[in-house]
Amino acid sequence: GDSVTQMEGPVTLSEEAFLTINCTYTATGYPSLFWYVQYPGEGLQLLLKATKADDKGSNKGFEATYRKETTSFHLEKGSVQVSDSAVYFCALPYSSASKIIFGSGTRLSIRP
Amino acid sequence: GAGVSQSPRYKVAKRGQDVALRCDPISGHVSLFWYQQALGQGPEFLTYFQNEAQLDKSGLPSDRFFAERPEGSVSTLKIQRTQQEDSAVYLCASSLARYTSGIDEQFFGPGTRLTVL
After folding, report:
1. Which residues does B32 contact at the CB level (< 8 Å), separation at least 6?
2. pLDDT of B102 above 90
3. pLDDT for res A86
4. 3-state SS assignment for residue A74
5. Among A84-88, A96-100, B70-74, where is mean pLDDT lowest?
6. Cβ separation of A43 and B105 shorter than 8 Å?
7. pLDDT surpassing 70 at residue B109
């Protein structure tokens, strides 16, 4: 069945460091792919998305490219800030499109 | 602007008690979803409504879980005879359109943290 596997955390980086959080997926067809973020004390928010192969989603300095050949959607940011500390979830809509399948989440902590 | 709201934010129940969790979606949103998020895990799908119709309840873990959305707006997730394994954060999400394309954004509420003692 469809599934998402993402890099386990926690990940701790210093401010201005480069970030990569790996995500790979297994799916029937070519679904949309999402990254959601959960800031402390807040609800899940959509960070970025890509709807087809080779698309690049971007928002708030984060980027992820939908790579069909490697079935991946890695999240990257060139220079992280303390305010980026949160839990990040890779996700894809299930083949029936009535629900989203989430990865297990990666907790990111940024040191000043 | 008003987002998805959930109440209560925290609920402590003794094992065997019934609980009811409320979700107020964004006004006008057709689709409504419930998810269960265990500690340190990603959310897992429970059920989906399109207006008042419950189109998918494949994720409900047992017949102790029941959800309704009688007027196509507010939804209630009810858990009967709660067990310790029901302890989790219950998330509600809504989406403007019928969720047929897989690209419509789901807007999440802050969740209800349920602790069963």
Report:
1. B23, B25, B48, B49, B69, B75, B92, B93, B94, B95
2. no
3. 96
4. coil
5. A96-100
6. no
7. yes
What is the rounded CA–CA span in Å between residue A63 and residue B11? 37
Distance CA B58, CA B74 (A): 21
Proportion of chain A above pLDDT 70, given as a percent: 96
Residues of A in contact with B42 (CB under 8 A): 4, 89, 91, 102-105
Mean pLDDT of A16-31: 90
On the CB side of A73, how many CA atoms lie within 13 Å of its CA? Answer: 32
Nearest to A71, CA basis, from A104, A19, A29 = A29
For residue A34, which phi and psi values (nearest 5 degrees)?
-130, 155
H-type alpha helices, B34-93:
none
Residue B67 touches chain A, beta carbons under 8 Å = no
CA B79 to chain centre: 11
CA B105-B1-A32 angle, 5° bins? 5
